[in-house]
Design a protein that fits this description.
Layout: E1 17-18, E2 29-31, E3 41-45, H1 47-53, H2 63-68, E4 81-83, E5 86-89, E6 92-96, E7 102-108, E8 113-117, E9 132-133, H3 134-149, E10 156-168, E11 172-182, H4 188-196, H5 200-214, H6 221-224, H7 231-253, E12 255-256, E13 278-279, H8 303-322, H9 325-332, H10 335-351, H11 357-373, H12 378-391, H13 395-398, H14 404-418, H15 423-431, H16 441-452, H17 457-467
């Protein structure tokens, strides 16, 4: 599959820009134009994101759109900028960071920010070239849309454009740009930056902006009363609970982020910055998906605790506004109950259980232990269990386990609780909670290899499956099968 040549008669990409983050002033960003790339071409587009933004039909046939979304020209009304932030990376204070290869084109009247990733150097690039390569861009594009299809809060991806322009990583590779979309790209690290530099006025300005735009309820008497009327403590509390909900969804679906630095944590509780991510194949709780993570700080089973650690860093940054350490700590406290409750709620849905939830909790931990002990494929197990409940045939589930006696004992306990449920409703709940398709590393790699040869059809097929991951998609069973042996050799790092 190749995209059609842009047409001069295609609709103009005239967008209704409004001042959002840019209204905060020059302490928060640097205005600059993206750096052009030669001979751009379309690699992939998302129809649903285009609809979200209100783009005209046929927008992707426009030469103007192709050039603008590669960074080769600036759209009318857009004021491109790169924001400054700081943060902790792998648990160590890294000082000033910022948008090193991302440039914000602006915010649309509908409230969505549009950002180009891979658009060239910025004042915050440090020693980097500000570029993204085709392989990493495909992974981000696909995973953004896959997470949305799973119902997990995330930034979105409108398109990828490619170029024959070369970028050096471990080897020379071709450049690409991802157009990312989110209500806001503000991170924990933005707050850390101003707190670390004793810029309390700017810190307050940023916090007020985030509250007024995204958390207006934090100014209500009901929200502030537990915190002595302090809206900044209410903000910390709300961000903490959103983050807890996000972690529960990640853990339930078997998603590993791989680089949970504070500068990669969204103030809105979105999944942000797809680098060395992975969906689990075999269920290995201590799995490390990032080959740059030499000490396993961001292993799958550590993600919920790391999220809390990051929230503690955010609390420290907000302390000049909250003014009382005990109040700040209290605003974080609900994370410790919201996460396990939210995770258990996710597991109940995966098990098709709505009754006797106290009893069902006793099923979850033994099941996870069995999955780990038998190295069972996580996604396939849950999908087979869903069909087993629907069809009354559990043999395909048993076949996944070397320890048949142990899984039989667990299935007996499960069947006792399942007997309290309406089987049809339980099966329907499970089939809409346990995806058939996730973005496994080898599937992404196959799409990348084809794209490097100029064939984008594999990317388009995979995108279509991942946009509706709970559907059966007859004829595409290979995309839901066990990973091939070579999948274990795929190495994903911070440079990916």
């Amino acid at each position: 599959m190749r995209f059609s040549t842009p047409s001069p008669s295609a609709p103009s990409l005239s967008l209704p820009w409004q001042k959002g983050f840019a209204a905060l002033g020059s302490d928060f960003y640097t205005e600059l134009r993206p750096t052009p790339l030669p001979s751009p071409h379309w690699v992939g587009t998302s129809h649903s994101v285009a609809q979200l933004l209100g783009l005209p039909e046929g927008w992707h046939h426009s030469e103007e759109a192709l050039q603008a979304l590669t960074g080769n020209q600036v759209l009318a009304g857009s004021t491109p900028l790169a924001s400054v932030y700081s943060g902790h990376q792998f648990g160590v204070w890294a000082g000033q960071l910022g948008d090193g290869r991302a440039i914000l084109l602006g915010e649309l009247a509908g409230g969505h920010e549009i950002q180009l990733k891979g658009a060239g150097r910025t004042p915050y690039s440090r020693m980097g070239d500000g570029r993204a390569v085709l392989r990493s861009s495909i992974r981000e594009f696909l995973c953004s849309e896959a997470m949305h299809g799973l119902g997990i809060p995330t930034s979105r991806a409108l398109c990828i454009t490619g170029s024959p322009g070369l970028v050096r990583r471990e080897e020379l590779e071709t450049a690409a740009v991802v157009t990312r979309v989110a209500p806001s790209f503000v991170r924990f690290g933005h707050f850390e930056h101003f707190a670390a530099n004793d810029q309390e006025e700017q810190l307050r300005t940023l916090a007020n902006y985030v509250i007024d735009r995204y958390y207006p309820e934090c100014r209500s008497p009901e929200a502030t009363s537990p915190w002595g009327g302090n809206p900044y403590a209410a903000l910390l509390h709300s961000v903490s609970e959103r983050t807890a909900q996000l972690m529960a969804q990640w853990q339930a679906v078997g998603f590993c982020h791989g680089v949970m630095n504070t500068d990669n944590m969204s103030i809105l509780g979105l999944t942000l910055d797809y680098g060395p991510f992975q969906f689990l194949d075999a269920f290995v709780p201590g799995h490390i998906c990032n080959h740059s993570d030499h000490h396993g700080r961001y292993a799958y089973n550590r993600q919920p605790n790391i999220a809390y650690w990051n929230l503690f860093c955010l609390a420290q940054a907000l302390l000049p506004l909250i003014e009382d350490q005990d109040t700040a700590l209290a605003a974080l406290e609900s994370y410790k109950t919201v996460f396990p409750d939210a995770f258990m709620a996710q597991m109940h849905k995966k098990l098709g259980l709505t009754q006797a939830q106290d009893s069902s909790e006793a099923l979850v931990e033994p099941l996870l232990q069995l999955l780990a002990q038998n190295a069972v494929d996580y996604t396939i197990f849950w999908r087979r269990l869903s069909h087993a409940v629907a069809e009354g045939q559990f043999e395909p589930v048993r076949d996944l386990f070397a320890d048949r006696a142990a899984i039989d004992a667990w299935l007996l306990s499960y069947s006792e609780l399942l007997a309290l449920e309406d089987k049809a409703l339980a099966a329907d709940l499970m089939l809409n909670s346990n995806p058939k398709f996730v973005l496994r590393n080898h599937l992404g790699e196959q799409a990348i290899r084809a794209a490097k040869g100029g064939d984008f059809s594999e990317l388009a097929t995979l995108q279509r499956l991942l946009e509706r991951p709970f559907d059966e998609h007859p004829g595409h069973e290979a995309y839901a099968d066990f990973p091939p042996d070579w999948a274990s050799s795929i190495s994903i790092s911070c440079s990916s």
